[in-house]
Specification:
Helix content: under 10%
Largest sheet: 9 strands, parallel
Strand content: 35-45%
Number of helices: 1
Distance between the termini: 123 Å
Order of helices and strands: EHEEEEEEEEEEEE
Number of strands: 13
Radius of gyration: 34 Å
Shape: globular
Length: 174
């Protein structure tokens, strides 16, 4: 009559724990489902859209300024190409201090020349390779064991400090 062995859920004592594994509570996730959120930074990017690597070299056509070149050299290798113009147009006038950092290069292709103005400094800790002529009326510090290469003539009327390696067709000290 009233003491049958059937269970309707009221005769047995139910524990406070559910049958799920211990430790899978809702302590961190208020929804209680413990699923990862879509904005979880640990999830990888979508593999179907690979990012293209940014080039570490920028090619510029003259006429460009030394300030532009100096800014690019902070993060990239720079290649300068001659533009439509005469030697004056295709001369990189170093009218601000320029640094070629270690691990970076400044390449000046045929027809591009360089002139360092009085009071300005060209600091070479990386590589400079040019096919044209260079005129130094300021300061050139070459500390790079890579190469400072001038395919034409290097005319030095300023201060030239070379603890690195210089290769030039001709060198003229004034």
């Amino acid at each position: 009559n009233g003491s049958g062995s059937g269970n309707n859920g009221s005769d047995q004592e139910q524990g406070g724990e559910s049958p799920e594994d211990p430790g899978e509570g809702d302590t961190d996730d208020p929804s209680g489902d413990n699923t990862e959120q879509p904005d979880d930074p640990a999830q990888p990017e979508d593999p179907t859209e690979p990012e293209e690597p940014e080039s570490d070299t920028v090619e510029l056509t003259m006429k460009v300024t030394a300030a532009e070149v100096n800014e690019y050299l902070k993060t990239k290798n720079v290649v300068l190409n001659a533009g439509a113009g005469d030697d004056a147009y295709n001369t990189l006038e170093v009218d601000v201090d320029v640094t070629v950092p270690q691990g970076k290069s400044l390449t000046m292709n045929a027809g591009v020349h360089m002139e360092v103005d009085p009071g300005m400094t060209l600091q070479i800790d990386g590589t400079v390779a040019m096919e044209g002529n260079m005129s130094n009326n300021g300061t050139v510090n070459n500390t790079s064991m890579n190469t400072f290469q001038v395919g034409g003539s290097f005319v030095n009327s300023g201060t030239f400090s070379n603890t690195g390696r210089l290769i030039a067709q001709t060198v003229q000290n004034n």
